[in-house]
């Protein structure tokens, strides 16, 4: 009887360990985007999983610049985003979970609403789930840049 109990405990511990190791946190929620060059807070972006199993992100809050200016419209953005309000603008589309690597996301598209530039995108969630490393690139990933988004609890600062 003692042998069976020990066997059950070992199997239970193995199951717990496997579930912890294979756990992949979700990127759904609110993320504060930071300018990697200036350290300035830019926006809060809400990421949600769409019905087609892709992740999409829209701007839910815009921080004023250091000079107190808020860019309200996407002036240099390509169609269909040209002159659209930045608030509510979908800036992240098509991101999917990488089936080969937990906490990694691929095949996305990123719109930098302040400048109007568009990039292919991928992301990696930190092990603690508090930072999202967004990589935007044109052509190949090696020619891009990575910015860090920080998880926040709400759409308002």
What does this 3D model show about the protein?
The chain has 157 residues and is mainly beta. The protein has one domain (26-152): Lipocalin (Beta Barrel). Helix content is 13%, strand content 41%. The protein is built from one helix and eight strands. An eight-stranded antiparallel barrel has the order 1-2-3-4-5-6-7-8. The longest helix is centred in the N-terminal third of the chain and has 20 residues, at 2-21. The protein is globular, with a radius of gyration of 20 Å. The chain starts with a helix and ends in a 5-residue tail after the last strand. The relative contact order is 0.17. Residues 29-151 form the DUF2147 domain.
Strand pairing plus helix content: what structural class?
mainly beta
> Spans of 5+ residues with little confidence (pLDDT < 50)?
9-13, 15-23
Walk across the major sheet and give the strand order: 1-2-3-4-5-6-7-8
Number of strands: 8
Strand content: 35-45%
Mean pLDDT: 87
Q: Can you tell me the number of structural domains?
A: 1
Elements, N to C (H/E): HEEEEEEEE
- Using the 3D structure, state the CATH architecture: Beta Barrel
Shape: globular
Rg (C-alpha, Å) = 20 Å
Task: Characterize the quaternary organization of these chains.
Answer: single chain
Name of the CATH first level: Mainly Beta
Portion of residues in helices?
10-25%
CATH topology heading: Lipocalin
Total number of helical segments? 1
Largest sheet: 8 strands, antiparallel, barrel
């Amino acid at each position: 009887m003692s042998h069976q109990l020990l066997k059950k405990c070992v199997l239970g511990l193995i199951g717990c360990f496997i579930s912890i190791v294979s756990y992949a946190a979700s990127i759904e929620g609110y993320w504060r985007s930071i300018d990697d060059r200036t350290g300035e807070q830019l926006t809060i972006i809400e990421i949600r999983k769409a019905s087609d199993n892709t992740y999409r992100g829209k701007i839910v809050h815009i921080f004023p610049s250091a000079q107190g200016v808020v860019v309200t419209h996407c002036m240099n953005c390509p169609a269909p985003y040209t002159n659209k309000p930045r608030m509510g603008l979908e800036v992240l589309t098509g991101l999917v979970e990488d089936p080969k690597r937990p906490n990694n996301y691929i095949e996305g598209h990123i719109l930098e609403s302040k400048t109007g530039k568009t990039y292919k995108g991928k992301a990696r969630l930190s092990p603690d789930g508090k930072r999202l490393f967004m990589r935007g690139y044109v052509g190949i990933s090696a020619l891009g840049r990575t910015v860090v988004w920080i998880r926040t609890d709400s759409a308002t600062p």
